[in-house]
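PROTEIN DATA CARD
Card holder: PqqA peptide cyclase
Chain length: 380
Origin: Rhizobium wenxiniae
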Amino acid sequence: NEHVTVRPTSEWTDQDGVVRRIRIPAPIAMLAELTHRCPLACPYCSNPLELEGVETELSTEEWISVFQQAASVGVLHLHLSGGEPAARRDLVELTAAAAKAGLYTNLITSGIGLTEKRITELSEAGLDHLQLSIQGATPELADKVGGYKGGYGRKIAVAEWTHAAGIPLTVNAVCHKQNMDQMGDMLDLAVRLGARRIEIATVQFHGWADRNRQALMPTREQFLKANAFVAEARKRLEGIIVIDYVGADHHASYPKACMGGWARTGLNITPSGKVLPCHAAETIPSLRFDNVRDKTLEAIWYEGEAFNAYRGDSWMPELCRSCDRKAIDFGGCRCQAMALTGDASATDPVCIRSPLRQLLSEQADADSLAEPPAFVYRGR
Ligand code: SF4
Ligand code: FES
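Structure generated from the sequence above:
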């Protein structure tokens, strides 16, 4: 693969202090945020605070060109996401074009806006997989969290149609203080709906979720209980359902390897065509982002300023650069470092080696133990 060898390299210092140059690998996954429009109003919405309007969205032809470029750069998995991707009238056409380009297509949806007919059409268009979010195990709680009355019932119907169409299903359960005690019931629901996989992920507190910290931050006790539950359930349900789990990192010892390391495996495209190294990268004010309307995806991946900002380890603070875990977690999440320290190149403060960890834990404990205030729902 020629472009892998001729493109710029990133520097990496190994354990013995020897500087090595690493080749930039081709991206594996691309998340296409087809639109920021969404009928739900989740209090932990991961879309940016400034939403991109419908008038700025890439056209059908522009998206199709992006998919074709992605396939030729090396992308294997395409996640069609949003906002709510079903809000795009051309969703079936886009799916067909992506499948034709040779991409594995995964639709990440709240289910709202999908009908039985549309799911059949998506299946015929070559949709490989569908990921359906649930906000709780009961209609009362799920509809309260999503801020959408009747949402739960719609989701159950979508899961059934998906299963009937033979499209493999994953259930996404975002967990927090107010639904974590239903984790077992959400897992049972996923099994009943015929899901092959469930993603149980704890809310991340940058962006909109930060406004709801006291309403959403799980307690340390909930975190420990969830860890034990997942370990037990994985054994009990082996061969029936796969459980992917992201625990509450505010209560964990080390940060997660966000995005598998900055600009190492994947990229995101916003509705208007900006290319980001992760969905929250725009929270880092020093970064400038290229747009697929101006440059090729290949040039952006290998040469884009934002992509090269945190590749390798030369940007890392000494704490991470000399750490034996730097090739495991890559210093954690840049956006979280930005949100919590004001410096995107700081050690992610959820790391127990960070001098800020103590403060972070105290804040997380205080938020988690507070009486939950009313949700601040995602505004449109
Ligand atoms: Fe990861 Fe940096 Fe903490 Fe080491 S010091 S564990 S590299 S975040
Ligand atoms: Fe941006 Fe983690 S969300 S690096």
